From TrEMBL, chain A:
Role of this protein: Catalyzes the 2-thiolation of uridine at the wobble position (U34) of tRNA, leading to the formation of s(2)U34.
Chain sites annotated for binding ATP: A6, M7, S8, G9, G10, V11, D12, S13, L32, G123
Organism: Neokomagataea tanensis NBRC 106556
Family: Belongs to the MnmA/TRMU family.
Name by which UniProt lists this protein: tRNA-specific 2-thiouridylase MnmA
Automatic annotation (TrEMBL), chain B:
PANTHER family: CYSTEINE DESULFURASE, CYSTEINE DESULFURYLASE FAMILY MEMBER
UniProtKB keywords: Iron, Iron-sulfur, Metal-binding, Pyridoxal phosphate, Transferase
Function statement: Catalyzes the removal of elemental sulfur atoms from cysteine to produce alanine. Seems to participate in the biosynthesis of the nitrogenase metalloclusters by providing the inorganic sulfur required for the Fe-S core formation.
Aminotransferase class V domain sequence ranges: 8-347
Family in the record: Belongs to the class-V pyridoxal-phosphate-dependent aminotransferase family. NifS/IscS subfamily.
Organism name: Neokomagataea tanensis NBRC 106556
Extent of the signal sequence: none
Reactions that this protein is recorded to catalyse: (sulfur carrier)-H + L-cysteine = (sulfur carrier)-SH + L-alanine
Name of the protein in its database record: Cysteine desulfurase
Cofactor: pyridoxal 5'-phosphate
Amino acid sequence: MRILVAMSGGVDSSVVAALLHQQGHEVIGATLQLYDHGQAAKPGACCAGRDIMDARAVADRLGFPHYVIDAENRFRDSVIDSFASSYARGETPVPCVACNQGVKFTDLLGMARDLGCEAMATGHYVRRVEGEDGAQMHRPIDSDRDQSWFLFATTREQLEYLRFPLGDVPDKAQVRKMAEEFGLQIADKPDSQDICFVPNGSYAEIVEKLRPEIRGPGEIVDEAGQVLGQHEGVARYTVGQSKRLGDIHTAVGERQMVTKIDVSSRRIVVGPRASVQSAEARKVIHLRDMNWLCNPIPEGVRCGVQIRAREELREALVVPLADGGARVELTAGATPAPGQACVLYDGTRVLGGGFILGSA
Amino acid sequence: MTFLSAQTYLDANATEPLRPEAREAVIAALDLVGNPSSVHAFGRAVRRALEEARSVFGHGFGRDPDQCVFTSGGTEANALALHAYGAGRRVLIGATEHDAIRRVVPGAEIIPVLRDGVLDCAVLREKLAESGPAFVCVMAANNETGVLSPLEDVHALCREFGARLHVDAVQSAGRIEQSLEGCSVALSGHKMGGPKGAGALLLPDAESIDALMPGGGQERGRRGGTQALPAIMGMAAAFTAAREQDWSVVDGLRAQIDAAVQRLGARVAGYGAARLPNTSNVILDGVGAQIQLMTLDLAGFAVSAGSACSSGKVAASHVLTAMGEHDGATQALRVSLPWNVQNVQVDGFIAAYEQMVQRLRKA
């Protein structure tokens, strides 16, 4: 079949393209130009100009067409700007979810349909399983590479059209071995890491550049409003974190964590880690913009939820709400960070997910 | 019976297919031993071939062969002209000039074009009247739209105000005849159907110029470096063949494309203006150039989008933007018919274009 492969220029998507090409499919490679690589870009992140050349070299070597798609404006508006806006609201966003949701699985996928492709494949580590009720999303075989949390917002319609050949691969070493066997020069290229548009790992600098109004120092206070210390900018904090609190832990005599970020007063609110984690109030999380990858049950579904990219599952009852959101009733207290994703799992299967709302 | 190969090449303004006359000349040149600067018999033989090529362009453009300086291509010829004649003068360039001009003089004053892509001579007159000696750069024909510049008017204005004129004739040379006397002219071999790697700057007069690369003093000190004889001989043969070609055949096929795409609701940029016989710039409103380009490529038709950077990313066309297009500048395809285009290829293209419009316009 004619299939479009979203190629980042990295090992994973290159192997996907090579694999499908070898299987006799009519492969069309496409690489998104997400921003002007003259400005940012670092080696090892996935959007540098170098990566476009690498993707093109793979396509040329294997002999299928490859195109570079200009998505700079769309990426700036739908990913980078909303990333900064989210921080400016005191949230901790997940830009990769926004990118997969918009630029990749809406725009590029629409392009694949326009080109008469029967499917679009990516190098994501997630499994697509044909179920009775349509395609399902599952965690990959290689749990170290699991990207299902970042892909929860994929709609069922998109999932029908998508293919993730690496979901069944045992580990990355295997992928690199395949790359070598295909004769791809990028076989030992480093993995992409962190957020691609953040050049030196300092996302706070980018946020503060785009939203200068939130820049600058502020106070760290306890729940009663008593000032415990100073901080260098609200964008450097996430609800649940204990780092960057200086001497406060020792001063208070108990390990503290961020419980709230108040952007308007530039205050970081902290509380004792132990007591916050057991607090009854944090047993309920509200989510917005739920994406269900199963048929939602009105009275709620008992499942595991994951409220951070790398964290263990928590037991919960998730009840769909009329506004398109959901109420998550946790069995044990947690410290969810507004803006992060809460993804629902039943065993390896992703049931859906939504974005965590502030507790107020 | 014409064999329609899997891929149809309709991107001649990027580069023309090699003409058989040029191929022969290149092959002959490859066997010539010797450096044209050498004193011995080998050098003399090579030099004779080189000077024959030079006279083809001298005579072709109504000037002494000595006024032809061979370069590596059109980009170098344009850069050399700006280097030689632009220094100490205000530089005025047309808004739709090629990057080979625009990027050499980022601070140049821009002469706008009218909606049909034709240079606005009224503004040129005002600018020339303003002050100081000027150097004016105007392309003979635009690479994206094929729109011709009103060179006689431009030339008359330059004479009136004592300005020097440089014409980038890369797209027009061999395809149309234009009066280019008294100005410097940039040429490119592969746009005529010669091999890549040779071009020429025709000088306006017998006065020497300052070289960009003095090197060993070749080209009478005006361009250093051993001449690329095979490419130069190929260029000369291609130019001669191009001038002898009956372009009305190509023009007729281009007219078929214009009519067909307009019937399908597309617009042809610069349609009302005088244009090259082979170029049609087709704007399909509401459909991005990138997806059009991909669709046609996958269907076996090679055309181009106005402005593609080295990565292959399709950006908005500065040419169409200068003509007053907004979204249209990102929704245009350039169809440029090669010298050897076949009827059946044009029929095939029209059918593929129609199919594309039906598929992409459905939304």
